Amino acid sequence: MIETVEVNQKLVFAADLGGTHLRGALVDERGKIHVQLKTETPQDDSPESVVDALVQASAECERRLGIHGVGASSILVPGALDQKSEVVVESPNIPGLDHYALKFALESKFRRPVLLGNYANAAAVGEMWLGAARGARNIVCITLGTGVGGGIILDGKLWRGTDGSAGEIGHAAVEPFSGPPCKCGNTGCLEMYASATAIVRMAREGLERFPDSVLQDGCIDSKKIYKAGKAGDELALEVFKTMGDYLGVGLANLMNTLGPEVIVIGGGVANAWDLFEPHMIAQVQSRAFTSLSKRVPIRPAECGDNAGLLGAAKLAFDFELVN
């Protein structure tokens, strides 16, 4: 059944370009997702293949909705963008995009305005618009996935910093002198303790100390560690305690520095909330100013996987890219 779209309905094609999957959606100015899809990201390291995949995803969304042409495209890229968000400076998960003028290439194909953005920033906007931070104007949003991303909104506006690199919360050092090395070149980054990758690493490091752990029986991933923790496995519980402790240290620093109204935590790892939340809160209460730890709520995200898509669309509407 094809959904009926109002005449002159303004729509944005929002896309989350991941290293493995590409997710696309058509979103209106009220935040309603009319149609969405998920497909594989091209793996041939050709930037042209990525451009074609995005164009095809948009066309398929339009076909499913029974329309032709939308007002703008808003694309989330897994990597660093230049100051004007026109060129991908570095994209570790899609190396073919490094130093590629993605915005120009997409606008040439789409023949409509294109906005490039960062997933964590967009997720913060999405949660402020329709999620756990509704009504707030000063928020921090942290995404716990393969890595740790961050988005900061101050006075209702996305804070990008001088050169667009602000919000790299995952690379704040929480154990700078004895922590494990991070791919960014630093040591002891929050990402090395609070990401899915970190959870797996810490579990493997602890296997020798916990010979009776159910995690001894084969391949370990973050989901398996979570299930083990829910079943009371001591190694898994220790891993989530360590994760919660270091995440709490990072959040306390953010509270003391920014004094936000609310902190929102999303991403796949946030599904283990019940296992790390008590330890996270304990560290926040012991390290943040009491006035802040009592006032600033820390909430799980509400928009799920759609937070980035919603935020991407909202940014396109805010920049008035849609006629």
Annotation keywords:
Nucleotidyltransferase, domain 5, 5-stranded mixed sheet, 10 helices, globular
Describe this entry's structure for a reader.
- This protein has 323 residues and is α/β, with parallel strands linked by helices.
- The chain has 2 domains: 11-118 and 306-318, 2-Layer Sandwich (Nucleotidyltransferase, domain 5); 132-301, ATPase, nucleotide binding domain (Nucleotidyltransferase, domain 5), CATH 3.30.420.
- It is 38% helix and 19% strand.
- It is built from 10 helices and 12 strands.
- It has helices at residues 47-65, 102-110, 119-130, 191-194, 196-206, 222-230, 234-258, 273-287, 290-295, 307-318; strands spanning 11-17, 21-28, 33-40, 72-76, 80-81, 88-90, 114-117, 139-144, 148-154, 157-158, 262-266, 298-300.
- The protein has a 5-stranded mixed sheet with strand order 3-2-1-4-7, sandwiched between helices. It has a 5-stranded mixed sheet with strand order 10-9-8-11-12, with helices on one face.
- Strand 1 and strand 2 form a beta hairpin.
- Helix 1 packs parallel to helix 2 (102-110) and helix 3 (119-130) crosses helix 10 (307-318).
- The longest helix has 25 residues, at 234-258.
- It starts with 10 loop residues before the first strand and ends in a 5-residue tail after the last helix.
- The mean pLDDT is 93.
